[in-house]
Amino acid sequence: MKNKKILILAIILFITMMIVILIFFKNNTAKSFKIGNNTSSQEIVDYILNIKSYETIVDVETRSNKNENKYVIKQSYNGEDENSQEILEPSNIEGVKMVRSGKTLKLENTNLKLTSIFENYDYLSQNCLDLSSFIDEYKNDANSKWEEKNGEIIMKTNLSKNMKKELYISKENGKPLKMNIEDTNKKTAIYILYREVNVNS
């Protein structure tokens, strides 16, 4: 009877130790990746492709043959096929917010307290400026690739025959730095600079 109790106690102690070791290993691995110590470029690419949720503030510059426009936008993605973008600048459209959830797009003007909802509208619900869209496109494009150059990782994918995207990532901390969206003439149509990136793991 006494030996049985000792055996059960030993098994419980062993299982507890294994759980503690696994938790310690998992936490240390995540921590070392976040600070960028001894992390390979492939690990950083895999990390970007597996981001589940984030918040960013970006500077966006759009260029066409006739003009250039600049915006500051707050973006967020909750990992459940829902993302939002709120315009912070310029002041004349400040507070305009687009929230996409599945195939539903909600447009809000927080200053005027106006809301419009579009159901099952595939074209509007797509968003080429968002990091989550880039991740989906990269995963679904058989010709996607990445390269390392000047301390940055450049992930490349084609939107279509006429457009391509390049996402630049810091090799030091694994955070997105900028994104270029180019047209067929290899002229930058949209340039996105990431001011702040907060990834929720």
Description:
This protein is α+β, with helices and mostly antiparallel strands. The protein has helices at 2-35, 41-49, 122-125, 131-140, and strands at 53-63, 68-77, 82-89, 96-101, 104-109, 114-118, 145-149, 152-158, 164-170, 176-182, 188-200. The radius of gyration is 22 Å and the shape is globular. Residues 28-33 and 121-126 have low confidence and may be disordered.
Features:
globular, 201 residues, 11-stranded antiparallel sheet, alpha+beta
Summarize the structure.
Helices cover 28% and strands 42% of the residues. The chain contains four helices and eleven strands; from the N terminus they run H-H-E-E-E-E-E-E-H-H-E-E-E-E-E. An eleven-stranded antiparallel sheet has the order 6-5-4-3-2-1-11-10-9-8-7.
**How many beta-strand elements?**
11
Low-confidence segments, ≥5 residues, pLDDT <50? Answer: 28-33, 121-126
What does the average pLDDT come to?
Answer: 75
Please state roughly what percent of the residues sit in beta strands, choosing from under 5%, 5-15%, 15-25%, 25-35%, 35-45% or over 45%.
35-45%
Distance between the termini: 47 Å
Helix content: 25-40%
Quaternary state, please? single chain
Helix and strand content put the structural class at alpha+beta
The major beta sheet can be summarized as: 11 strands, antiparallel
Show the helix and strand layout.
Layout (H helix, E strand, L loop, with lengths): L1 H34 L5 H9 L3 E11 L4 E10 L4 E8 L6 E6 L2 E6 L4 E5 L3 H4 L5 H10 L4 E5 L2 E7 L5 E7 L5 E7 L5 E13 L1
